[in-house]
C-alpha cells in the first residue's frame, strides 16, 4: 500500500472516533497510523472474505475500524488497482476488559457500520468462542497467566473450524533490549489507561510457536514492529483444512 493511500485509509478508519471525543480520535489516529500491523494485515490478505472475527482485548475496536473502512473505500471504487483488495463482508465481535473503551468504540463505529460490529466489556477468559472463523488477540495474551493462556489456546483451537485462523501478536521474551523496551512502553500505556499494574506473563517466540503447533495449528511468524524498537512478532496460526 502506498504511503499516500495509507494516509487516505488512516483518515477514513479514524474519522468515526471524532464523534466520541478528541482523546479517542487522537488515540485511534496514533495507533492506526503508527502500528505496522494494520497495513500488514490488509497487504498480506490475512483475513478471508466473509470472516466472522472475534477480537479478544479489542480496546476501542481499531482492528474492526481499519478493515471496515478499507472495505467501504473498496466498495465505493476508491481502492487503488495496485493494492491487494481488502476482505469483503467482515463481521467483528470484540471483547474488552475495560468496558468504557468497548463502549466508546461502539459509539464510534456502529453508526457507520450497522450490523457489522459488536464490542462489549468482558474478560476474554470467560467468553464463548464458538461461531467464529478468526480469533484475534493482539498484544493481550501476556496479561493473563500461563495456565490461563494454555486454557484459552485449547478453547480457541477447539472452537475454530477447519481453515480457521488464530491471529496473535506477542513480544519475544528472548528479544533482549528490544523486548525490555516494549515492556516498559506497555507498562507506561497500561498505567495511563488506568490498568492495575501487575506481572506480565511472556514467553520466548520459540515457545509460543511450540505450544501452538502442539495444538495442531500450522504457524507462520512475521516480525511486526514497524519503526518501533520492539521485539513483537505476529503469529498467523491456521487450523489445517482437513482437521476436524
Ligand atoms: C495493548 S492493548 C491492545 C488493544 C488492541 N488489541 C489493539 O491492538 O489495539 C491490550 C488490551 O487488552 C485488554 N485486556 C487485558 N486483559 C484482558 C482480558 N483478560 N480480557 C479482555 N481484555 C483484556 C486491555 O484492557 C487492553 O485494552
Automatic annotation (TrEMBL):
The keyword Methyltransferase appears for this protein: yes
GO BP field: methylation
Keyword terms, alphabetized: Methyltransferase, Transferase
Gene3D superfamilies named among the record's database cross-references: Vaccinia Virus protein VP39 (3.40.50.150)
InterPro entries xrefs: SAM-dependent_MTases_sf (IPR029063)
Presence of the UniProt keyword Methyltransferase in the record: yes
Superkingdom assignment: Bacteria
GO molecular function: methyltransferase activity
The protein's name: Class I SAM-dependent methyltransferase
The organism of origin for this protein: Candidatus Dactylopiibacterium carminicum
